[in-house]
Write a structure and sequence with these properties.
This protein is of the alpha/beta class and about 500 residues long. It is built from 17 helices and 13 strands. Among the domains are: about 70 residues, no CATH class; about 250 residues, Aspartate Aminotransferase, domain 2, CATH 3.40.640. The protein binds pyridoxal-5'-phosphate.
Length: about 500
């Protein structure tokens, strides 16, 4: 079932063919004279022309939108606190009040009676802080650990790998059940060594939308005496309301003894403006390992709760506003509507001749795979019909698939989406085009000539920063390459992208 990455290139082979950004002096320069605000705002608006049309209701990801009135409120609240600086809450007590309010709401929803936490700019920052807390706790309590390890299932978000990379921790990745895509509790124990400082599980994982068996893992974490982080970045402001509505959601939060920290994003299904998440610890004792304080340099005394120091109060104010605007009732309504829409999609795909859902998702996130053709072809065909679905490359836990995060904005369009999905499938089946032929690309790769990457880019239709309309060939190639080689190519692409 999972991909074994059929191609065998290694980094040594491909590193010779890396492109380097162009050297000519094309950078944008600061204009000599300022321009009018009206003209600048108009120009900014025009830049959006090529963006994903997220307001259309035809985009299943990236933007979590609770409707026009919510958007208006977010903009207003954000801009009202744009210039306030959360660097120093003693100087801006309004921001301290707002932060304590939103963190309190999160802790309460996640059953953290004794929990404390802080507002952060996103899931990645919350995760970074949870791992820093575990690392610094281990430094104090277990100083013999010199190479700290974090045990995480293959389905844990990439942000954990990033945090490990930044914090000098070793990620120890354990396999998941290849049918349910859930973590296997015993695997945590097996992977634990004298260097283990933290276990991680998801509620739910982004890729497949399934909740790991938190209670079973927590019980083992207690027995093993190891800290246990539950990543509820995508589920933290969805699952509590689904539970309240009676959906069969297993216990996943601080109601489970043994869960010591959590991450939950307001800017996902909390519908806050981007830059809004929370990191929570089950007890105040733990937070001191999260903080950074410096009073030895020449300037002001610095007390940081988060990675960022100077930060706008905008996202915090917008977050506070949306929580109070929607209230329990509003969130429940959005959960009910999106759960129903998800069910409609799942029913349509049950017994489908070509497509199937991976696992049994617990909320409104779906991974759809194909029995008959490349799902990347389907993603392209849907994009031509004006829909955006997110390609997910094959990995050690699953085959190529496309991801849908079903949002309130998608709800009125589900019937039309399913019609177009059927039309796209029928078109692909009727066309019966052969699979993408990677042979010419592989031949160039094997040749190892210095301009190989440029040749491959030309073959794939990549020109400078522009990608071709159809991404099937690029996704197929990436899917087949070993992850380290994929990552090498992706870094090269990013290196090209941010030039000018
Ligand atoms: C489960 C999970 N964890 C962490 C993250 C990272 O969050 P962010 O993109 O806000 O940094 C995501 C983002 O999708 C997620 O779904």
């Amino acid at each position: 079932m999972p991909c074994d990455n059929k191609l065998t290139f290694n980094i040594r082979q491909v590193s010779k063919i890396c492109r380097y950004p162009k050297q000519d002096n094309m950078q944008t320069k600061l204009p000599a004279k300022g321009q009018s605000p009206a003209l600048l705002l108009q120009t900014l608006e025009s830049f959006k022309a090529q963006d994903l049309p997220w307001q259309s209701g035809r985009v299943f990801g990236y933007v979590y939108d609770a409707g026009a009135e919510s958007q208006q409120l977010l903009r207003q609240a954000y801009s009202n606190f744009l210039s306030e600086n959360a660097l120093d809450p003693t100087v801006f007590p309004s921001l301290l009040k707002l932060e304590n309010d939103v963190v309190g709401i999160a802790a309460n929803l996640l059953h953290g009676d004794t929990a404390v936490g802080n507002f952060t700019t996103g899931g990645t920052e919350s995760i970074m802080l949870a791992l820093k807390t575990a690392r610094d706790f281990a430094r104090e309590k277990h100083p013999q650990i010199t190479q700290p390890e974090v045990v995480l299932p293959h389905t844990a978000h990439a942000a954990f790998h990033k945090a490990c990379h930044f914090l000098g921790l070793k990620p120890v990745v354990i396999p998941v059940d290849l049918t349910t895509f859930r973590a296997i509790p015993e695997q945590f124990v097996e992977a634990t060594t004298e260097n283990t400082i933290l276990w991680v599980a998801s509620a739910p994982s982004y890729a497949h939308g399934v909740i790991d068996p938190i209670e079973a893992i927590a019980q083992l974490a207690l027995q093993t005496k190891v800290l246990f982080h539950v990543d509820a970045c995508v589920g933290g402001f969805y699952l509590p309301f689904a539970q309240q509505l009676g959906y069969p959601i297993p216990a996943f939060d601080f109601s489970v003894k043994g869960v010591t920290s959590m991450s939950a994003d307001f800017h996902k299904f909390g519908y806050a403006a981007k830059g809004a998440s929370v990191v929570l610890h089950h007890h105040a004792d733990m937070r001191k390992y999260q903080l950074f304080v410096n009073s030895s340099w020449a300037g002001y005394t610095m007390i940081n709760t988060t990675v960022l120091s100077t930060k706008s109060g905008g996202s915090l104010a917008a977050c506070w506003a949306i929580l109070h605007y929607l209230g329990t009732e509003g969130y429940q309504q959005h959960v009910a509507a999106t759960m129903q829409a998800t069910q409609q999609i799942r029913q349509h795909l049950a017994n489908h001749p070509h497509l199937f859902v991976l696992g049994n998702p617990d909320m409104n996130l779906l991974a759809i795979a194909s029995r008959s053709f490349s799902v990347f072809r389907l993603a392209d065909a849907m994009r031509r019909r004006g829909w955006y679905v997110q390609p997910q490359l094959a990995s050690a836990s699953s085959v190529d698939n496309i991801h849908l995060s079903v949002n309130p904005s998608n709800v009125p369009h589900i019937a039309e989406f399913l019609q177009d999905l059927d039309a796209a499938v029928a078109e692909i089946v009727a066309e019966a085009k052969p699979a993408v032929d990677l042979a010419p690309i592989l031949a160039i790769l094997q040749s190892g000539t210095p301009d190989a990457l440029a040749q491959i880019s030309a073959l794939l239709g990549i020109s400078g920063q522009d990608l071709p309309e159809d991404l099937e060939a690029i996704n197929t190639l990436l899917s087949q390459l070993p992850p380290a080689v994929r990552e090498f190519f992706l870094k090269d692409f990013a290196n090209q992208l941010y030039v000018d």
